[in-house]
Amino acid sequence: MTAVLVGLAHLVRPWAGTAPEALDSLVMEARDRMVNLAVFGAAFVVWVLVGLVVTTQDPIADRGAGFLGAFLMGLAIGLTMIPLFWLTAFGRHKRIAFQGDWTRAVRRGGWVGLIVMVLVVLRLQGVLELPIALFMMALVVVAESTLSAER
User: Fold this and answer.
1) How far is CA 3 from CA 14, 89, 136, in A?
2) Which of 39, 64, 74, 86 makes a 20 to 30 Å CA pair with 111?
């Protein structure tokens, strides 16, 4: 009976029964939590700026407002995605933070923000086509898979 309970405890807490020094962390550290909240807070501020620009400026009449809106949208989405990418990796690694997870999350958030910014600018210029968008996304997938390859 106790063997079954130990086995069930291992399903709930996968790190149970392993040496604590073998793991990077058993729970999310305070610095990771604060970085997540800070990046989400920065994303919220940029989303407010996006809302301000979108509701008060006309991108057709003022091209500068269109480029500013594209930059702010890319930045807002990129900042929103950084903690989501990190939390996905943190959950996938059974709540263990590995070295390099933040670097990958920032890089991937940057890719997403850059793609959004370029797509919005292309849309403003009237040259956005589906093959162009798919080609850009394929380039990012290839570049990220190359940079993220396990060594």
Assistant:
1) 15, 31, 53
2) 64
